[in-house]
UniProtKB/TrEMBL annotation:
CDD domains: Cis_IPPS. The lineage of its organism: Bacteria, Bacillati, Bacillota, Clostridia, Lachnospirales. Keywords: Magnesium, Metal-binding, Transferase. Its EC number is 2.5.1.-. It comes from the Bacteria. The active site is at D12, N60. Pfam families: Prenyltransf (PF01255). Binds 2 magnesium ions per subunit. One of its GO terms (biological process) is polyprenol biosynthetic process. Belongs to the UPP synthase family. This is Isoprenyl transferase. Homodimer. The keyword Transcription does not apply.
């Protein structure tokens, strides 16, 4: 079995899962956060090197203030727990997205998480929080334009590789496999540039119920595909 080096996940369906159990949406979010810890360990034990998960999109601010507020509270506690689990599991954590819209204390916890885990050599874990791919590209273009104006980059030297270096994922290889849970089959503004040649896997299983076996199913399906680039089989 070929294990994909980098798996990206759109963890969806927390709310619907909770509703199906007669519980409030927040219950789904907190069970979803717990499941993420489990799946991180499973993924690493399976041999996955990079895992990138979508926690909060730039569009998720449109949800009710109560839901946004409870998600932010959950991220606070998740970040604190993650500082400990990252040390225990030798996991390096990165944040992608624009943290500047988050509360200062949450930004500070995220910085601590990134900083305390930066030397870890186990799972390379990216959390996308206040992430939107279009926003990421716009921020990259802004920084690149500034470098051009400062004379650090010549426009004629801009190519795909140079541009990728301005994205939040600058030192992470592109995902090999994208998984979206809970039945929706869209990207919802996730990693538009990075997913250009990624294999997609959609499952009806809602995120809080997603298990190691479901991850295996996705990897098996990935293995049954023949990856091609420009119509040419992968070497
Ligand atoms: C995914 O679950 C978690 C976040 C987007 C924060 P949802 O909250 O989108 O759950 P559904 O899709 O409404 O069931
Ligand atoms: C995408 O899920 C964002 C995250 C998983 C964080 P949503 O549930 O917000 O996406 P849409 O709005 O249904 O596309
Ligand atoms: Mg959803």
């Amino acid at each position: 079995m070929v294990i994909p080096q980098h798996v990206a996940i759109i963890l969806d369906g927390n709310g619907r899962w909770a509703k199906s159990k007669g519980m409030p949406r927040n219950y789904g979010h907190s069970r979803g956060a717990k499941n993420l810890e489990v799946i991180c360990e499973d993924a690493y034990n399976m041999g996955i090197k990079y895992l990138t998960v979508y926690l909060f999109s730039t569009e998720n601010w449109k949800r009710s203030p109560e839901e946004v507020d409870s998600l932010m509270k959950l991220f606070r506690s998740y970040t604190k727990t993650c500082i400990k689990t990252a040390q225990k599991n030798n996991m390096r954590v990165r944040v992608i997205g624009d943290p500047t819209a988050l509360a200062e204390d949450l930004q500070e916890s995220l910085r601590r998480l990134v900083d305390t885990s930066k030397e870890n050599t186990g799972l390379q874990f990216q959390i996308a929080i206040n992430y939107g791919s279009r926003d990421e590209i716009v921020r990259a273009v802004r920084r690149l334009s500034r470098d051009c104006m400062d004379g650090k980059v010549r426009p004629e030297d801009i190519d795909e590789k140079l541009f990728s270096g301005y994205l939040d994922t600058w030192d992470v290889p592109d995902p090999d496999l994208l998984i979206r849970t809970s039945g929706e089959e869209r990207l919802s503004n996730y990693l538009l540039w990075q997913l250009a040649y990624t294999e997609f896997y959609f499952t009806d299983v809602p995120w809080p119920a997603f298990t190691k076996d479901d991850l295996w199913k996705a990897i098996e399906k990935y293995n049954s595909r023949e990856r091609r680039y420009g119509g040419v089989k992968e070497e």
